[in-house]
Amino acid sequence: MEIILKQDVKHLGEKDDIVVVKPGFGRNYLIPQGFAILATSSAKKVLAENIKQAQFKQDKIKKDATELATKLENVKLSIGAKAGETGKIFGKVNSIQIADALKAQGYEVDRRRITFEVEPKTLGEYVANLNLHKEVKVQVPFEVVAE
Asked: Where in the numbering of this chain does the Large ribosomal subunit protein bL9 C-terminal domain appear (predicted)?
């Protein structure tokens, strides 16, 4: 029995894979649980069209991320923070502050895509990693200065 998986199934395949299973497994478990549908000719055509459209969207997202990454290569940020006499800041600089500083310069980056190699807890220079796409990553240097 040939089926199309609607989601990842452990030890069987990933979403949108066409797999061959025993009829009882497909009819009694996979299809009723919503994990798969029958692989009819019309379902295969719909799957091919969906994969084509998804690929087009992914290519556009990757292209946009690459363009943004080239713009961000020469950006240097300055983040203000309250600090003590020893240079230790009260609290720490977080991804929201980096996202706001980028937005002020005209770059829209989601704060959940920003990570740090070293958590900025003192004054000085650091690097923020921006994961714009699973294949497009860029590092933006920033400086923490006393307010």
From this structure: 64-146
| Digit-coded pLDDT (tens) for 3-24 | 999 999 999 999 999 999 999 9
**Model-level pTM greater than 0.85?**
no
The C-alpha angle with vertex 79 and arms to 111 and 140, in degrees rounded to 5, equals 60
For the domain made up of 69-146, give the CATH fold.
Ribosomal Protein L9; domain 2 (3.10.430)
